[in-house]
# Entry
Amino acid sequence: MQHWKEGGHDQLCKLIKKAGGAEQYNANEKYSEAVSVAAEACAEDTKGQTCYICTQALHWKTKEGLVRMCSCRGTAGFAHVSCLAEEAKILVAEALERNLGNKALERNFCRWYKCSLCEQKYHGDVKCALGWACWKTYVGRLESDRLLSSAMRLLGNGLFAAEHYEDAAFVQETDFSIARRLGAPERDVLAMQSNLASTYQRLGRLEDVLRMRRDVYSGWLKLNGKGSVDTLREACNYAFSLTDLKRFEEAKALMRKTMPVARRVLGDSHETTLRMRASYAQSLYMNDRAPLDDLREAVTTFEETERIARRVLGGARPLTLAIEANAREARDRLAAREGGRDVSSVCDGVAAMTPGDA
# Structure
């Protein structure tokens, strides 16, 4: 009673009630924090620019700054997180109200995580802020509502992108548990397992990751066949896990089998194809007993992949930066071997390469 009257608890409860409950209040608070972090992270890049949605530099209501973190270049792609969120919210509501079907709903929902201009996914702190924006929008829905699960998955991926791995694991484990209890479609369960495996990888649970990656890859192979983007993405993720555990020959064999399929089905410029080529090059250069020809092939592969990634995704994209870092390490290892020096001190680059989220 004393805390209620004198400790401010009564005032906090009023705010929580006004927000719609504890879960909604927490989502609103976390969203505001994430928007501030994202705007600060983008401050240097957004100087002198305006939002392409509302045309203002500062948001008229929230006074938040601008963000970008997609693959737009020049003066394109600058926006407020609030404007991006409102646009996505309206598009999803339109698909539901007009009963446009699942394909239209999925297409409109992608505005929560993909830029409408460059059609590339947001990354880093902006992805995290949009994850919280999506979660606070749909948090009040029933567990069985598809939008709630999609929002939870987006939040988990956003927390992962911002390197909040413990929080990401909690959200993803909760989402996975609910999905299994409700008997969600197999494709949704496989996607959740894949995202959770990515988080476990960053938490160092490598044996668990390998088992999950193998199961998810097999699941997509049975469900969609070897030529689907989901199967190819998980083949790449499985290869990363094999390389993590220094099972280089297995990773190399898997990529040699699946890369030609990806290049034929998706093309050389697709992000999954780029990841697969990078994974293959890692399996070549990270083996301390690799022959010189493998090291040379790794360097050539990284350099070709880096050029395509810079052209398609831009130089600031995490995947582009990771490929660039791995290319430097591969060149260092090759130079050391050709010069007769020990390469065991060269740091590994697997951690820099982020598996693709589902």
